[in-house]
């Protein structure tokens, strides 16, 4: 099967102005494409680095908040335990410790 350029003459005059213009346009297009590709790779690398830094900050924040949560849980449990020790169950109130009953 003939190629797309098969319809044109198979002889290409490399010294012609038309050939040189086409080559120059093609070279410029290739250069532009390569620059665009390089820029895209650099942008992607920069984004990867930004995301890595953000991830490190978030991991550190998670660690800090996890520690804080643990401390607060411990404080809560200690307070709840102390509170439970100081409260008598309903119906087992002592008459000597109740100020209302001391006048009887």
Defining key terms:
104 residues; mainly alpha; 1 helix; 67% helix; 0% strand; ubl conjugation; RNA polymerase II cis-regulatory region sequence-specific DNA binding; transcription regulation; C/EBP
Describe the structure.
- The protein has 104 residues and is mainly α.
- It has a domain at 15-85.
- 67% of the residues lie in helices and 0% in strands.
- The chain has one helix and no strands.
- The chain is rod-shaped.
- The termini are far apart.
- The mean pLDDT is 86.
Task: Please render the helix and strand layout as text.
Layout: H1 17-86
Short description:
This protein has 104 residues and is an all-alpha fold.
Low-confidence stretches at least 5 residues in length (pLDDT < 50)?
none
Average pLDDT score: 86
Strand percentage lies at under 5%
Number of helices: 1
Roughly how many Å is the radius of gyration? 41 Å
Q: Give helix and strand order, one letter per element, not per position.
A: H
First-to-last CA distance: 120 Å
Query: What about the largest sheet?
Result: none
The number of E-state strands comes to 0
Helix coverage percent of residues? 55-70%
What's the shape?
Answer: rod-shaped
Structural class by secondary-structure content: mainly alpha
Protein name: CCAAT/enhancer-binding protein gamma
Biased composition (Basic and acidic residues): 10-26
GO biological process, one term: DNA-templated transcription
Pfam families: bZIP_2
